[in-house]
Amino acid sequence: MPDGLWIVLAIIAGVAVYTLAKVVSYAKKSEQQWEEVDKSKLREWDDEDDPW
After folding, report:
1. What is the pTM of this model?
2. Distances (CA, A) of 37 to 9, 10, 24, 30, 48
3. Alpha-carbon span 1 to 10, nearest angstrom
4. What integer pLDDT is reported at residue 45 of this predicted model?
5. pLDDT at residue 52, rounded to an integer
6. What is the C-alpha to C-alpha distance for residues 18 and 21, in angstroms, rounded to an integer?
7. What does residue 51 show for φ and ψ, rounded to 5 degrees?
8. How many Å separate Cα 19 from the centre of its chain?
C-alpha cells in the first residue's frame, strides 16, 4: 500500500473516533438533563391533538 494511504486511513479513523466520542458525550449529557427535569410539569402528549 502507498505510504499516503496510511495517513488518510489514520485521519479517517481519528475523525470516526472523535465523532463517536462526541455522540456518547452528548448522549450522557442528555440523559443527565432529562434526570434533572421537573417531571411533575410534564403532560401526556397525544399526536391526535389538533391545536388549530
Report:
1. 0.65
2. 42, 41, 20, 11, 25
3. 14
4. 76
5. 64
6. 5
7. -70, -10
8. 9
- Please compute, for residue 40, the number of CA atoms within 13 A of its CA located in the half-sphere on the CB side: 0
Residue 44: φ, ψ to 5°? -65, 140
Sequence letter at residue 38: D
Can you tell me the distance from the alpha carbon of 38 to that of 36, in angstroms, rounded to the nearest whole number?
7
pLDDT at position 22, please?
98
Instruction: State the residue for C-alpha cell 481519528.
Output: 14
Q: How many residues does the chain have?
A: 52
Q: How far apart are CA 20 and CA 24, in angstroms?
A: 6
**1-52 per-position pLDDT tens digit:** 787 899 999 999 999 999 999 999 999 999 999 999 888 888 887 777 666 6
Q: What type of residue sits at position 35?
A: E
